[in-house]
Design brief:
The chain is about 35% helix and about 25% strand. By secondary structure, it is an alpha+beta fold. It starts with a strand and ends in a 30-residue tail after the last strand. The strands form four sheets. A five-stranded antiparallel sheet has the order 9-12-11-10-13, with no helix packed on it. The chain is built from five helices and 18 strands.
Length: about 400
């Protein structure tokens, strides 16, 4: 049995099955309206394409940013080299000035020559100052302190340090790419949900069986908390019946059973015990037994009354004895035999008379092969009488 509910709320657009219809697993029961879902699907697909292009642009921006950083590293190295050259020129100009000054003091250098050397030294010092400022400006954003200010670790190895500095100077472009990728995943999830709802808009039967009930109409709003159809699988049907406590030893799971119903008096339906309840009803002293019955033609209907027979798991043996060895009891089908004990005395034992044929009776009772019972003149025997010798008849 399956109660069919929709996966989401929507209006019923089409009905495919009615009560009593047979249905196979996977066949449609109804179609929900998909107008809004189709529009949403188009919107999601369009947004997905736009976002893919946005991600492409973000990746291009990140690549350009990394290329810019590489150029910045080159510019920094160039500025560093320029600074070293300017420092060397300034040092050389300083030494030249010192030498020329000493020579000027002894009259070996004219005033005009000394003035030219002084001008060259001042120019070299100015060039050094400009180179130092340019180098410091070029390093902004590529220093260890910049990593610290950004809250990032500062690697000691030069290769790892350069990688960290590249990450610092492309952090905005990378964040933009990650944001767009997250947005793409969100759009994809929305599209997948929409497409799943479109697939689920055709409500299908989860099993093969018969539509037992339909509780929704065309145009009505289907809701997940309300069953629209009930489908039952009646290819195999259950018969529930009580079994007396005393017969528990004669039944077991898997035993064969058959049943008949008034609607088909000439048909016998076969099955087997599937479940024996572990609980005994304290009032009736019975247990509930569930029998699964094969119903390929779907003749049996839920709620029918049936009469069943269960194959005996531990049948009593039937013995064939002379009619004169059994005393009839007051209850029809019941009787008594005089059973000989090991000590040679006769005592009554109840038996069930199964069938009579050819002056003999088929009986069932607490007997076993080889037991001796009295034959004839039973009315003259009293319990406790000694049994006659073998071959001797009671007079």
């Amino acid at each position: 049995k399956a109660e069919i509910t929709p996966r989401f709320e929507a209006r019923v657009q089409k009905l495919f099955r009615e009560e009593g219809d047979r249905i196979s697993k996977g066949q449609p029961l109804l179609q929900l309206d998909t107008t809004q879902l189709i529009l949403q699907q188009k919107k999601d697909r369009s947004a997905l394409e736009v976002q893919k292009k946005e991600i492409g642009l973000s990746r291009s921006r990140l690549i350009l940013a990394r290329q810019r950083v590489e150029r910045d590293f080159s510019t920094i190295e160039k500025a560093k080299a320029t600074l070293a050259e300017a420092k060397a020129q300034a040092d050389n100009a300083r030494r030249t000035l010192q030498n020329k000054t000493k020579l000027h003091e002894i009259g070996a250098v004219s005033d005009s020559e000394l003035k030219g050397v002084q001008t060259a030294y001042a120019s070299a010092e100015a060039a050094l100052l400009r180179a130092e400022k340019d180098f410091e400006n070029q390093k902004v954003g590529y220093r260890k302190e910049d990593l610290k200010q950004a809250g990032l670790p500062v690697p000691e190895q030069s290769g790892a340090l350069q990688t960290a500095l590249v990450g610092l100077n492309t952090i905005i472009e990378k964040a933009e790419l990650e944001k767009n990728e997250a947005t793409l995943q969100s759009i994809q999830a929305t599209l997948e949900t929409t497409e799943w709802m479109l697939r689920e808009s055709t409500v299908r039967s989860p099993l093969t069986g018969v539509v037992a009930s339909r509780d929704i109409d065309l145009g009505e709003m289907a809701k997940p908390d309300k069953a629209m159809f009930v489908v039952i699988d009646t290819r195999n049907i259950y018969l529930s019946c009580p079994i007396g406590e005393k017969d528990l030893g004669r039944i077991d799971k898997g035993q064969k059973a058959s049943l008949k119903v008034d609607a088909y008096p000439d048909d016998s339906f076969q099955g087997k015990i599937e479940l024996i309840s572990p609980i005994i009803d304290p009032q009736s002293r019975t247990v509930n037994v569930r029998i699964i019955i094969s119903n390929p033609d779907l003749k049996l209907k839920t709620g029918m009354f049936a009469r069943g027979e269960i194959e005996d798991a531990a049948p009593d043996r039937v013995f064939l004895v002379p009619e004169e060895s059994v005393m009839a009891a007051d209850e029809p089908g019941k009787g008594w035999v005089f059973f000989e004990t090991e000590e040679g005395f006769l005592f009554k034992k109840p038996v069930q008379i199964v069938e009579s044929k050819d002056n003999q009776l088929e009986i069932r009772g607490d007997l076993k092969e080889g037991d001796r019972i009295a034959v004839g003149a039973l009315s003259t025997i009293k319990e406790g009488d000694r049994a006659p010798e073998k071959g001797e008849r009671k007079k």
